[in-house]
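Researcher: Please predict.
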Amino acid sequence: MKRQKRDKMERAFQKGYMAGVEGKSKDQCPKEAGPEHQQWINGWREGRSDHWDGYTGVSGIHRVNEVVIHH
């Protein structure tokens, strides 16, 4: 049985979120422009917000799962 690929927009958001939580710069976005770039930036912003709120490491595991599953 083949596995279904995840939606590109969902994947871009999740990758951006993870970069933001890890404190990485938004300049590391792999896309230059377009809807995937915007989703990555949206995820990055949410991830940075969570990073500033202290959701890093073990204390952020529940938040990461929440974002990854529901977005």
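Model: Residues 19 and 44 are 6 Å apart (CA to CA).
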